[in-house]
Specification:
Strand order of the largest sheet: 2-1-11-10-12-13-14-15-16-20-19-18-17
Bound molecules: adenosine-5'-diphosphate
CATH superfamily of one domain: ANL, C-terminal domain
Radius of gyration: 23 Å
Helix content: 25-40%
Distance between the termini: 73 Å
Oligomer: single chain
Shape: globular
CATH class of one domain: Alpha Beta
CATH architecture of one domain: 2-Layer Sandwich
Number of helices: 17
Largest sheet: 13 strands, mixed
Number of strands: 25
Structural class: alpha/beta
CATH topology of one domain: GMP Synthetase, Chain A, domain 3
C-alpha cells in the first residue's frame, strides 16, 4: 500500500521560490570583481534567476545542456545557480585555479554549451576559447558598458544586457527530481579529472541535512560567509541551505586575503563562515598582527583538509568562535561528517574537548559510513582500529560522468580513499589519505599528526609531511615547512619541538624549509608536486 501524500519532485527551483516568498528581504551582499560592495536580496535574486531562465531558453539550449561558469562567489553566480538548474540545464562550475589547458579539457569533456565568466578571467577565456569546441555562447558577467570592444571572443555577450532585457515572470518547469542539476570535476591528482554529476534530489536533500542543527545549523538569524568557492562542490551546498532557511549571504568575490575577509565579517555582521584551513590561517595571522577581535562571528566550519589543533584553539579560546571541523568530498556533494559535540562532551576538560573537536565528526543523517580492513572485513567502532573508509547515501556518487573509470562502488559502497577510525560515539577521525600514509618499520605514521605538531610551533605557517624511501625502515617521514614572515626556527629546534608530543619513531627525520608548498586548485597541499620538488632530496645519513 502506498502512502497518500503528494508526490512533489524535489527541485532546486522550489528553494528559490521559497526564499522569495518567505525571506524576500533577506540580504545578499557581494564584494564584486569591480572592487565595490553590491547589495541585493532574495526577492531580487529570484526575479533575476527567472530572467536568466528566459535568456537560456532564448539560446535554444536543450534540457540537460551544460552551462559553465568561471566565477568567484557573488550574486550573479548565485543567479546562475538557480536560473540554470531551475530550467533543467546543468550548471558546470569550472575551477579558474586550474591550468588553462586543463580547463579547456574539462569544458570539452563536459560538452559545455555556454560559458559565463567574471571579466577578471578574460585572459583565461582568451587563451582557451579557440580550443573549446562545444561552447557556442560566451557571456561576461558584467554591465554592457564594461564589455571590452577588443575581447577577441566572437559574439561575446554582456550578462546584464543578455538577461536584463528578459521578463521577470517565468514558470519553472516540473520534471524528474533525479535529473542532473550541476556538476563538478575532481582535482584529478591521478589521471584525468572525473566529474561528479549532482541531481536536483541529491542537492536538495544534501542542503536540508546540511542545515540541521548538528550539521551547519543554518537559520534566518544567520549571516553566512561562504569563503569556500562556489566553483568548488557548490560551496559545500551553502547557497542552497541559505535559500532554504533565509540566512543572509555574504560573498567575498576574489578578495580572499586575511584583511579583506576579516573586514567583510565585521562590516556585514557575519555569524557563520566556511572555508579551508589555509584561508583561516591567513585571517588569523592578520588578526594576531593587528590585535583584532570579532564582534559577531559565532562559528566557523573548517574542512577540505585536516584542521590543525592550533587553529581550533585560536578560534575557540582566543576569539570565542566555535569551530565545526567537517569532512567531505566532491563525490559526496560534499558533506559527510561534522564535528558537533554531544552533551557528554560539554563538561570535559579543555584538552579532552579539543581531542574530540579534532576529529572530523559524526556522520550527518543520510551518510552511512564503515571502516574495513584490507580484506574488506568491517572493523569495530572503538576509536582505535583504523581502515579504509567507505560511505553510501542519497548524495554520494554512484558513477562518474560518462562512466569514466568504471564503477567506483564496492558492494554499493563508495571507497573514499581515506583511512580512518570511528569511536563508539560515532566520531570519525581521518588518519590519512591512503596514498599519503607513511609506512615505517611495519607501522603506519599519520602524516596529519606529524603536520599538526609542526603547525603548533609559533614560527610555522604551513607544514607538509611526506614519506621518503629508507633502506631499513621502508619509509621515514620528513616535514617540509614554510616559516611565518619574520619568524625563525632551525631544523634542530623544530625536531626538538616534537619531544614528548609523539612517539620517538614518529618524529620526522628531517626538516626542509621551503618558500612555498605547492597548493592545488582548491587550496590543498599537493603532495605529489611536493615530491617532485624534493626529488633530489636524500635523508640524512644515507
Ligand atoms: P572537497 O571537494 O570537499 O575538498 P575533494 O574531493 O577535493 O573534497 O577532496 C576530498 C578529500 O579531502 C577527502 O577524501 C579527504 O582526504 C580530504 N579532506 C576533506 N576534509 C577533510 C578534513 N576535515 N580532514 C582531513 N581531510 C579532509
Amino acid at each position: 500500500m502506498h502512502g497518500l501524500m503528494q508526490n512533489h519532485p524535489l527541485l532546486i527551483s522550489s528553494m528559490i521560490d521559497f526564499a522569495e516568498r518567505h525571506h524576500g528581504e533577506g540580504e545578499i551582499v557581494s564584494r564584486r570583481v569591480e572592487g565595490d560592495i553590491h547589495r541585493s536580496n532574495y526577492k531580487t535574486l529570484a526575479a533575476r534567476s527567472r530572467q536568466v531562465a528566459h535568456a537560456l531558453d532564448g539560446l535554444g539550449l536543450e534540457f540537460s545542456s551544460r552551462v559553465a561558469t568561471l566565477a568567484w562567489n557573488g550574486y550573479r553566480h548565485l543567479e546562475l545557480y538557480f536560473g540554470v538548474s531551475g530550467t533543467g540545464r546543468v550548471l558546470h562550475t569550472l575551477n579558474p585555479r586550474l591550468h588553462p589547458e586543463q580547463i579547456a579539457w574539462i569544458a570539452n569533456h563536459a560538452e559545455d554549451s555556454v560559458l559565463c565568466f567574471d571579466l577578471s578571467f578574460l585572459p583565461i577565456v582568451k587563451a582557451i576559447h579557440s580550443r573549446c569546441t562545444t561552447i557556442r555562447h560566451y557571456v561576461a558577467l558584467c554591465d554592457a558598458d564594461k564589455l571590452p570592444a577588443d575581447s577577441g571572443i566572437p559574439g561575446l555577450l554582456s550578462y546584464e544586457a543578455w538577461m536584463g532585457a528578459q521578463p521577470t515572470a517565468y514558470v519553472w518547469p516540473i520534471f524528474d527530481e533525479n535529473s542532473a542539476s550541476s556538476m563538478c570535476y575532481t582535482s584529478g591528482t591521478t589521471g584525468n579529472p572525473k566529474a561528479a554529476l549532482y541531481s536536483h534530489r541529491s542537492t536538495l536533500l544534501h542542503a536540508l541535512a546540511g542545515a540541521l542543527p548538528d550539521a551547519l545549523s543554518m537559520s534566518a538569524r544567520d549571516a553566512v560567509l561562504p569563503v569556500v568557492p562556489m566553483f568548488h562542490v557548490n560551496a559545500w551546498g551553502l547557497p542552497y541551505s541559505a535559500a532554504m532557511t533565509g540566512a543572509k549571504l555574504v560573498f567575498p568575490g576574489p578578495a580572499m586575503d586575511g584583511k579583506s575577509i576579516f573586514e567583510l565579517i565585521e562590516a556585514e555582521k557575519v555569524t557563520f563562515a566556511a572555508g579551508v584551513p589555509t584561508v583561516w590561517q591567513m585571517m588569523l595571522g592578520h588578526m594576531q598582527a593587528g590585535g583584532l577581535r570579532f564582534s559577531t562571528l559565532k562559528r566557523t566550519v573548517i574542512g577540505g583538509s585536516a584542521c590543525p589543533p592550533a587553529m581550533i584553539t585560536a578560534f575557540n579560546d582566543t576569539y570565542g568562535v566555535e569551530v565545526l571541523h567537517a569532512w567531505g568530498m566532491t563525490e559526496m556533494s560534499p558533506l559527510g561528517t561534522v564535528c558537533t559535540l554531544k552533551n557528554k562532551h560539554l563538561e570535559l576538560e579543555p584538552q579532552d574537548k579539543l581531542r574530540v573537536r579534532l576529529k572530523q565528526g559524526r556522520g550527518i543523517f543520510g551518510v552511512d559510513m564503515k571502516i574495513v580492513d584490507p580484506e574488506g572485513q568491517e572493523l569495530p567502532w572503538d576509536g582505535k582500529a583504523f581502515g579504509d573508509l567507505l560511505v553510501r547515501g542519497p548524495w554520494i556518487i554512484s558513477a562518474y560522468f560518462k562512466g569514466e573509470g568504471g564503477s567506483p562502488l564496492v558492494d554499493g559502497w563508495f571507497p573514499t580513499g581515506d583511512v580512518a577510525t570511528i569511536d563508539p560515539d560515532g566520531y570519525m577521525q581521518i588518519t590519512d589519505r591512503s596514498k599519503d600514509v607513511i609506512k615505517s618499520g611495519g607501522e603506519w605514521i599519520s602524516s596529519i599528526d606529524v603536520e599538526n605538531i609542526a603547525m603548533a610551533h609559533p614560527a610555522v605557517a604551513m607544514a607538509a609531511c611526506i614519506g621518503m624511501k629508507h633502506p631499513k625502515w621502508d619509509e621515514r617521514p620528513i616535514i617540509a615547512v614554510v616559516k611565518k614572515p619574520g619568524s625563525t626556527v632551525s631544523r634542530d629546534e623544530l625536531i626538538a619541538f616534537y619531544d614528548g608530543k609523539t612517539a620517538k619513531w614518529q618524529i620526522p627525520d628531517d626538516v626542509v624549509f621551503l618558500e612555498a608548498i605547492p597548493l592545488g586548485g582548491t587550496g590543498k597541499m599537493q603532495k605529489t608536486k611536493l615530491r617532485e620538488v624534493l626529488k633530489d632530496y636524500t635523508l640524512p645519513g644515507l
